[in-house]
Amino acid sequence: MPRFSDTEKERIRQKMMQEGERLFTTFGIKKVSIDEIVQATGIAKGSFYSFYTSKEHLYMDIAGSLQMKMWREMDEFLEENKLLPPRELCKQCFLWMFRKLESYPMLKQADSETAEYLYRKLPPEVIAAHTKDDSHELDQLQKYGVHFKCGIDIATKTLQTLAISFLNLQQDTAADQQTIMGIILDGVLKELISDESD
């Protein structure tokens, strides 16, 4: 196993994430090989495995990092819209995140096929860690008066399923996307979120 200083490790990890994001965005996760990642990064193949067990694990690390950036921006959105009723705040937040995907092409191109592939290839603990990150963000929504009728875990998995479904709408016009997402969100959020009028 290669030995790197902490500074070298961080530099290599950042380069792998940068090149991985570029390759995954351009070709999709299935078509990118570890050989292509290490060639673009300028490291030996053995070095790759001292950071990640698979290209799918790298993909999830990149996706998690991109989501964290989006969530930091989402916190600003929530602060600016905190006077909306809880259910409407959650709906507008979800629609905002979908529009924001334009800034994150790798996340935008993910669909149900990508999700199924990752679930098949990754160990359950990697998927569980990603779900935990998403539920942390729903915890943040509670600070803005959003109270879930079900547990955070169920709410998280429900909204993750919706997110993947919404990514499958990308062939539709923007107006149709907004209409369809609005209808689905109204129904789902009525079941998930308590509103003051309930």
Automatic annotation (TrEMBL):
Residues 33-52 bind DNA. The keyword Ribonucleoprotein does not apply. Pfam families: TetR_N. The keyword Transcription regulation applies. InterPro entries: HTH_TetR (IPR001647). Keywords: DNA-binding, Transcription, Transcription regulation. Residues 10-70 form the HTH tetR-type domain. This is TetR/AcrR family transcriptional regulator. It comes from Faecalicatena faecalis. The lineage of its organism: Bacteria, Bacillati, Bacillota, Clostridia, Lachnospirales.
